[in-house]
């Protein structure tokens, strides 16, 4: 594929990867609960346009994560699994209507080539795994020869159909996916995908917004980017994934570093506060003095107020499920009174 040399080997040569148990992004302070964090996460993308991703993943954080071996992304050409002369992957919909529908046979063959079992089989395997673990206790830890097999059984896969009919993709969904070892993304096209593929193989449908795209490739890129940046080591500063829009609640973030009060405030599901940098004055506007006075506690208060103000203005529905204190509620009421 030329430029796709940045991707690691295809699934046939991909072995088991390391995992560790620790605190997942956005869960710190959650009663000491631990979550599985994947040290190397894999995304397989089934698409009729594999070349679309060559430039998308060749820049910035994604490119760095790929080169550092923290993330693996592999597009798979759906047309390779269509065996007629024209490599046909679509057909007219039953019942009539405009457009074409992606056929089930090429998609099913592509998923099976990627060693994706049907959903009901994966669910049964997961149930059997839980039963085996209860019965064996720590036996595998004592037997070094079984260590690799134990790691292989820990593999978790989520198969996602990208569709305008799907559940809305949010930061919370990205956090959930960041704890999965492999994500398989099926890119819809035309009028959609034969529903039987969704029923037989897919764990969920995801939509990135209330609008219609020409295909699922852009949505796949969004899911990969938003998810992989939550994997430990991908961002240069781990705190960057906490102090941002839709980030963790302030109480869930470790406080004070080396005795210095932090000036950031966790979003707790809200939008982030506005940011400023040098020069202090630009275009006749001056950066807020509070940000330059060195009083961390005062800066935190100002930033919280700005989070609330921006959310109330641009995304007021987020306030309904955000982590709000009594002080937050008082500020919101004052803002609404104007």
Quick description:
The protein is an alpha/beta fold. It has two domains: 2-228, Alpha/beta knot; 248-337, tRNA(m1g37)methyltransferase, domain 2 (Trp Operon Repressor, Chain A, Orthogonal Bundle), CATH 1.10.1270.
Structure description:
This protein has helices at 53-56, 60-67, 104-113, 119-136, 139-142, 147-153, 171-178, 195-201, 217-228, 296-314, 326-337, and strands spanning 19-22, 35-38, 41-47, 71-77, 90-91, 101-102, 157-168, 182-187, 204-207, 281-282, 285-286. Strands 4-3-8-7-9 form a five-stranded parallel sheet, sandwiched between helices. The chain has a two-stranded antiparallel ribbon with strand order 1-2. Strands 5-6 form a two-stranded antiparallel ribbon. The protein has two domains: 2-228, Alpha/beta knot, CATH 3.40.1280.10; 248-337, Trp Operon Repressor, Chain A (Orthogonal Bundle). The chain is elongated and about 70 Å long. With 338 residues, it is an alpha/beta fold. It is 32% helix and 15% strand. The chain is built from eleven helices and eleven strands.
């Amino acid at each position: 594929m030329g430029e796709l040399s940045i991707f690691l080997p295809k699934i046939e040569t991909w072995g088991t990867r390391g995992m560790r148990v620790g605190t997942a992004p956005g869960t710190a302070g959650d009663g000491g609960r631990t979550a599985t964090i994947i040290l190397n996460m894999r995304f397989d993308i089934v698409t009729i346009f594999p070349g679309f991703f060559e430039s998308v993943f060749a820049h910035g954080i994604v490119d760095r994560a790929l080169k550092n071996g923290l993330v693996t992304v592999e597009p798979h050409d759906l047309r390779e699994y269509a065996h007629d002369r024209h490599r046909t992957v679509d057909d007219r919909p039953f019942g009539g209507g405009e457009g074409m529908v992606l056929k089930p046979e090429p998609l099913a063959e592509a998923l099976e080539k990627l060693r994706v079992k049907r959903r009901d089989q994966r669910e049964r395997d997961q149930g059997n795994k839980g039963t085996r673990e209860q019965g064996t206790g720590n036996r595998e830890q004592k037997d070094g020869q079984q260590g690799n097999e134990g790691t292989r059984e820990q593999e978790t896969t989520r198969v996602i159909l990208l569709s305008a009919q799907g559940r809305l993709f949010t930061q919370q969904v990205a956090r959930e996916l960041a704890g999965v070892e492999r994500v398989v993304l099926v890119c819809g096209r035309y009028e959609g995908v034969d529903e039987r593929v969704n029923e037989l193989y897919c764990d969920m449908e995801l939509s990135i917004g209330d609008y219609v795209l020409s295909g699922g490739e852009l949505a796949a890129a969004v899911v990969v980017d938003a998810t992989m940046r939550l994997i430990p080591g991908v961002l240069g500063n781990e705190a960057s994934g906490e102090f941002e829009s839709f980030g963790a609640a302030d109480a869930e973030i470790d406080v004070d570093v080396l005795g210095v009060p932090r000036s950031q405030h966790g979003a707790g599901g809200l939008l982030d506060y506005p940011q400023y940098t040098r020069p202090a004055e630009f275009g006749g506007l001056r950066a807020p003095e509070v940000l330059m006075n060195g009083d961390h506690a005062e800066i935190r208060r100002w930033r919280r107020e700005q989070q609330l103000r921006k959310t109330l203005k641009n995304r007021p529905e987020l306030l309904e499920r955000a982590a709000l204190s009594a002080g937050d509620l008082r500020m919101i009421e004052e803002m609404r009174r104007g």
